[in-house]
Amino acid sequence: MNTTLDRSQLRSRYRFTGALVLDTALHIGGGREASAVTDSPIVRDGMGRPLIPGSSFKGAFRAAVERLLPNLPGYRTCALNPSDSCLSMNGTLSKAYRAVSEAASRGNAIKDAEALQMLQRTQWQGQEVNETHLLDLLNEYLCDTCKTFGSIHLASVARFHDLPLKSPEYTALTQIRDGVGIDRDSERAVDKNKFDFEIVPAQTAFAFSLTLENPSPRDLGLIAIGLQEFISGMVPLGGIRSRGLGQCHLESVEVAQVDFTQSAAFKNYLVSGWPQPQPLGNFIEQQIAAL
Question: Contact 195/180 with Cβ under 8 angstroms?
Fold first, then answer.
């Protein structure tokens, strides 16, 4: 069995924490939520405070890694190469994998010769397939970013939590900014196309938290790339970025680690929770160097 993709047993857990500080104003729209104040309100928590959804942060984090990963020899990402033989992008391969997966879920022998031919596993014809077979296929037919950040066929090793305000008692005074539609041909304002949107002001800090479970050396390396990009302030968040919004950076990032294969560490975690987090130090450099 490919243990790097096996999630059946919890072997290790990492938690990264820090502060995400806005260098410029931020706008993450709250969808179609009605507002009497602005055309485009921001996302808020149940108490009405500004919030950065974990899904928004993860999307920017993953995209940052996907842009850089092709520069590393031997690593691939399907996001920038639609012709890649990754199950997430290749519909034919994905259909063949589902045929094998359905047989495994029923405990049946795989009889779909066409699917096995497509997956280059004709030797499995007539065999009863199980999780070991599926992990073998996922290891070969998922790209590196899908193995780390997840796909429709495999869960992510990373859990990006929502980012609340760093200081809950801090009531960030949001602002309303105006905009106007521009005709790209005439380069003039379009009549009756004025709009406004809500923003969170610069210097607002949000609490960052990321949890990894059973990460492989590859997973740790890819996460380190994303962390370094955010620490360097190279990843914008939210919308209306062409107007300068969304610039931010991570600071004061710390990491805590638990090895569940060590009995003493496991019991201490159950009794006392996470160990004391440590500054990143050389963590990022070491993980990227190992790629």
Answer: yes
